[in-house]
Each structure stands twice: as structure tokens, then as C-alpha cells.
Design brief:
mainly alpha; 495 residues
């Protein structure tokens, strides 16, 4: 196709890109949590918000890219800080949909049958991804997964551009390095990256290709220098990243290592069925069918890419399946991004097949009907279940606990939701700085016990357990956070 023939397609793609951005973002804003929330397994929200706002170090692996981006969003002049971090997730999920759309168009560009059907395929695949319940749920809360999905889509798009157009390999390396600072599972993208670099190495000097990518990757990974630089300076600091062993403890996620591939073998079939259900309910039967068509098309015409993307997909699926927690389904989000790409390729093939047998108008109408069944059904069926725009349970908890706490109290918590929410109220909203929050579960760690003297509890020795916290330091009321009916605290006065 010549340049004049491409102009109408480019105009349509601009409008489609706006739709890929605008429609999901509007839906996310309508259903997004109004502030800090525990909805959609968002218990870690208080920790992440507090760390991002104060440039601290959250729970392992530290999420430096998320914290740096979160600091920018946390200082927007919009509503409260928690809402701004929820908004960042909504933007991340929206950019994931747009990046997927761009990757599909990039792949299809230059094909002899390029037409408006390809524009539609990219848009509909983007909407299909945006309204999958897992990504949608994470777009409404302060968590790392929506931002990570945006980086996955970006790396997919850049990989194709490196292979097709000779785009700078350094940009691909930088994107991958930064994505590691949103979640360590970005390691699973290395087969896709290797495919792009191998293709680029056949057209350019291999040494230049790989050294350029490595330089970009190292620059992106430099975000992990954030951990020792900000240790002890923000409101929260997990571990002791100022030493090499402490830094590695955080970066390697040692705290959660026992969950990795720890799922009992008898539970694996159930997890696999859950994945199949998520695919079917998220993309719909027609979406799954188009995804299979896309896999078949790529396997016949682009085996190397299909192998690379398939290995990345399998890496994510294996990790999510084997991770022995109830919320491990969120680790499937990058795999859904890859599957949505396959879906877009299959949809483009299906639309072209219809075009060869029907008029352009009727083929587009038939294709629209088939393609929209999945996104529309997901939108309608999931809207009410995912909508948390009125959820204020975490806010009510924080307000009532701090209102009930006596002056100078020590608040003992044993639930991450309670601890992190109180951190948010104390360090971000600056409420009740006179009270001290002590997480009894973290008392098992030296770094946590060593941090407690800064809260004026007095010296805490390794021999002190949670029950002995009240026996050291100055005289303070000791209160256990219970949240039973209307009883929020159980306090004991000290002489």
C-alpha cells in the first residue's frame, strides 16, 4: 500500500486509539474506590500508598518503579492521596489496553490485506482485555498489577518494533528493566525479548544489539538503588536494604519465597480449571475461539514469535498456578495481555475471512457483532460485582479506631489490612501521631523490632515478643485492635 492509501487507515487508528483509552478509563473512574480500600484483595494498599507518598520502602520486593511513579501521582491536586494512587492504577490498566492495541496494529501493518478491519481488531482486543475481571479489579485499587500490565504491553509493542522497524534496543532494555521494578515476574518476558534481539541481530551487528539492550536494562534496573537510598527516610522501611544481604532479602522477595511453586499437586487441576474459567468469562467463548485462531495463525506463519510469546505466557501461568495463596490469580494478568494479543491476530484473520465472502459493510457488521460479545458481556456481567465506588469500609475502620484510641496508646494489630490502613492514616493523613502502631506479626523480624524505638516505645530486645511490648518503654495504654461489632479496641491502662 502507498502512503495515500494509508492515510484513511491512520485517521481511523487515531480515533480507535482514543476509544481504546477513553472507554476503559471512563468505566474505571465510575467504578473506582473513592479512597483507601480493602476491596479486590487490596489489603496492601495502605503500605504501598504510604511508601509512595513518603518515598519509603514497602514490602518485598520493594517495587521501586511503582514508588517513584506513585510519588508523582500522589502529589496531583486531586481529591485525597489514596484516590490518586487508585487513579494511577486506572491509568495503568488503560495504557495496557492502548499498548496492546498498538502492538496488534504494529504486527499487522504492512500486510497486503491491511484495512479498517485490522483497526477494529486492535480496538476490540483492547476492550476485551480492559474488561477482563482480573485487570478491571486491579484498575480500581492502589496495587502494582495494573502498572505492571502497562509495562508488559509496552514491551510487547517495543519487541515487535525492534524486530520489524529496527527500533532502538536500548528502549526495549529500559522498559524491561523498569518493569522489573513493578513486579519480578517480568523475568517471564525474556523469551519475547530474546526473540526481538535475535531478529534485530540478523539485520545489525549482534554485539551492538545486545550491548545496547543490556545498557538500557541496567539503567532501568538502577531503580533498585532507590531501596538503600530511601531506607529509613520514608515513613515505612521493610528490612534493612542498606546492607547487601538486607537489600537482597527485599529484592529477592525472601519473605514470600515459601509460597512459590508450593501449591500441592492435588490442587493444580483446580487452578487450571480456574484459569480456563477466567479466560472464558473474561473474553467470552468467541474471544477464546479467536485467541485459538490467532495461535494457529502465528504457529504457521511466525513460529519463532509464537514460541517466544508462548514461553512467556507459560511462565506467567506456571507461576500463578504454583503460587500457594488465595490471591495468586492476579499474577495471570500479564498472561492475559499476551492472550489478548493472540486474540487480536485471530480476530483480524476472522474479519478478513468474512470480508472475502461478504461485502465490506456486512463483514464489518458481522465481525463487530462477534467481537463485541465478549467485551460487552464482561462489561455488563461484571460491572455490579466489581463496582466499589462507594466502598468506605477501610476509611471507616481507620477513622473509628483512631477516634477510640486513648492518648499515647500502643495499638497492637495482627492483620495486614489493619496495620497498613493505620499507617496511611498516621503518615499520609497525619492523624493521631501520638499513638504507636505495632504489628505483632512483624515482631518476628529483627529489622522491625529495631525500628520500634523510633516510635518512643523504648528499647526492644530480640527476646521481646508481641505480648511483652507493653512491658517496655514509657507508660502507655495498650490496645488490641479487634474490630468486633462496634468494639474497635480492647485496651488496658497501665499504672
Amino acid at each position: 500500500m502507498n502512503a495515500d492509501d494509508l492515510k484513511p487507515t491512520r485517521v481511523k487508528q487515531r480515533w480507535a486509539a482514543l476509544a481504546a483509552l477513553g472507554v476503559p478509563l471512563a468505566v474505571y473512574l465510575l467504578t473506582m474506590a473513592p479512597s483507601i480500600t480493602w476491596g479486590h484483595d487490596g489489603a496492601d494498599g495502605g503500605d504501598l500508598i504510604t511508601a509512595a507518598y513518603t518515598l519509603g520502602v514497602p514490602h518485598p520486593p520493594g517495587y521501586p518503579t511503582y514508588c517513584l511513579l506513585g510519588w508523582l501521582f500522589a502529589h496531583l491536586p486531586l481529591r485525597d492521596v489514596a484516590w490518586r494512587l487508585n487513579f494511577m492504577s486506572a491509568v495503568g490498566a488503560t495504557l495496557a489496553a492502548l499498548g496492546l492495541c498498538a502492538a496488534i496494529w504494529e504486527w499487522l501493518q504492512g500486510k497486503k490485506d491491511t484495512n479498517s478491519h485490522h483497526t477494529a481488531a486492535g480496538l476490540w482486543a483492547a476492550w476485551g482485555l480492559a474488561f477482563v475481571s482480573i485487570l478491571w479489579s486491579q484498575a480500581l485499587i492502589a496495587e502494582v498489577y495494573a502498572i505492571n500490565a502497562a509495562f508488559v504491553a509496552l514491551i510487547l509493542w517495543l519487541s515487535i518494533r525492534v524486530q520489524r522497524r529496527g527500533a532502538p534496543c536500548m528502549a526495549l532494555g529500559l522498559a524491561w528493566g523498569l518493569s522489573m521494578g513493578t513486579h519480578l515476574t517480568s523475568m517471564a518476558l525474556l523469551p519475547l525479548v530474546a526473540w526481538a534481539l535475535a531478529a534485530a541481530g540478523r539485520k545489525r551487528a549482534p554485539g551492538e544489539v545486545y550491548s545496547s539492550w543490556l545498557l538500557g536494562a541496567l539503567f532501568g534496573l538502577c531503580t533498585y538503588a532507590y531501596l538503600p537510598l530511601r531506607a529509613g527516610r520514608g515513613a515505612v522501611t521493610w528490612g534493612n536494604p542498606t546492607t547487601l544481604a538486607g537489600w537482597w532479602w527485599i529484592v529477592s522477595g525472601a519473605l514470600y519465597r515459601d509460597y512459590v511453586f508450593a501449591l500441592p499437586l492435588e490442587a493444580v487441576p483446580g487452578r487450571m480449571l480456574a484459569l480456563a474459567h477466567l479466560l472464558a468469562s473474561g473474553f467470552g467463548p468467541t474471544g477464546v475461539a479467536f485467541g485459538v485462531i490467532g495461535v494457529e495463525t502465528l504457529a504457521r506463519r511466525q513460529r519463532a514469535f509464537m514460541l517466544a510469546s508462548g514461553l512467556s505466557w507459560l511462565g506467567y501461568v506456571a507461576y500463578a498456578t504454583g503460587y500457594d495463596t488465595t490471591d495468586s490469580y492476579v499474577y495471570l494478568i500479564p498472561a492475559l495481555v499476551i492472550f489478548a494479543f493472540w486474540l487480536g491476530i485471530g480476530l483480524a484473520k476472522g474479519l478478513n475471512w468474512l470480508r472475502s465472502r461478504l461485502s465490506a459493510r456486512w463483514s464489518l457488521m458481522a465481525g463487530t457483532w462477534l467481537a463485541c460479545i465478549g467485551p460487552l458481556s464482561a462489561l455488563l456481567l461484571n460491572y455490579q460485582a466489581l463496582d466499589i465506588h462507594r466502598d468506605r469500609s477501610a476509611c471507616v475502620f481507620g477513622e473509628r479506631v483512631l477516634a477510640a484510641a486513648p492518648g499515647q496508646a500502643v495499638l497492637l494489630t495482627s492483620d495486614d489490612r489493619h496495620t497498613f490502613t493505620l499507617w496511611y492514616f498516621q503518615h499520609v493523613l497525619v492523624q493521631r501521631p501520638d499513638v504507636v502502631v505495632v504489628d505483632t506479626g512483624l515482631m518476628a523480624y529483627d529489622w522491625y523490632r529495631n525500628s520500634l524505638p523510633r516510635s518512643y516505645l523504648g528499647p526492644i530486645s530480640p527476646e521481646n515478643d508481641a505480648d511483652e511490648v507493653g512491658q517496655v518503654g514509657p507508660t502507655r495504654p495498650i490496645c488490641e485492635v479487634v474490630r468486633e461489632d462496634n468494639d474497635w479496641l480492647r485496651c488496658t491502662e497501665r499504672e
